Amino acid sequence: MSALDGSPPAAGGLEPHILFGLCGLSLALLVLNVFLVTRLCRRGSSSVDIDWCQSLEAVEVSVPLPKGRVSHDVKCEIMPTRFSLAIRGEKPEPYLSGTLFRPINVDESHWQLWPVGAAEGEPRSIKVSMAKAKPSRWPTLFAAGAASVVETQEKKKDR
């Protein structure tokens, strides 16, 4: 019975205003989660533009592909604790390299040009997807002081 008017409680024994409040709270939490997933960024200083995001199980790194470069110009080495990316004709060489914050599973990791099937002249990126060896959150992509790129701009997004 409802304490307010003597009518029976709503489904599940919850008052209608409590049920409505819980739905509103759930929606607010969903909106907040979407905001955090799409907007949480960390920025360093400078010229090599790196965008990376993560889930508990994987890390994805995105680096813009310079105009005129194709897949044959990219050399990507994914090792259990290191990652290296070189782009023919781009300095520094390698373009990006370092010891990862934690180990990854090489057999479940790969790279590709994105977007697939882009029109000629359309901006493309190199997307590197790496499966984490153990589920966890990484505060940084590389272990402290382990990145060998002189100037790096890093944007991080949790997903």
TrEMBL record:
<dbReference type="InterPro" id="IPR007052">
    <property type="entry name" value="CS_dom"/>
</dbReference>
<dbReference type="InterPro" id="IPR037898">
    <property type="entry name" value="NudC_fam"/>
</dbReference>
<dbReference type="Pfam" id="PF04969">
    <property type="entry name" value="CS"/>
</dbReference>
<keyword id="KW-1133">Transmembrane helix</keyword>
<protein>
    <recommendedName>
        <fullName>CS domain-containing protein</fullName>
    </recommendedName>
</protein>
<keyword id="KW-0812">Transmembrane</keyword>
<keyword id="KW-0472">Membrane</keyword>
<dbReference type="InterPro" id="IPR008978">
    <property type="entry name" value="HSP20-like_chaperone"/>
</dbReference>
<feature type="transmembrane region" description="Helical">
    <location>
        <begin position="18"/>
        <end position="37"/>
    </location>
</feature>
<dbReference type="GO" id="GO:0005737">
    <property type="term" value="C:cytoplasm"/>
</dbReference>
<dbReference type="GO" id="GO:0006457">
    <property type="term" value="P:protein folding"/>
</dbReference>
<dbReference type="GO" id="GO:0051082">
    <property type="term" value="F:unfolded protein binding"/>
</dbReference>
<feature type="domain" description="CS">
    <location>
        <begin position="45"/>
        <end position="142"/>
    </location>
</feature>
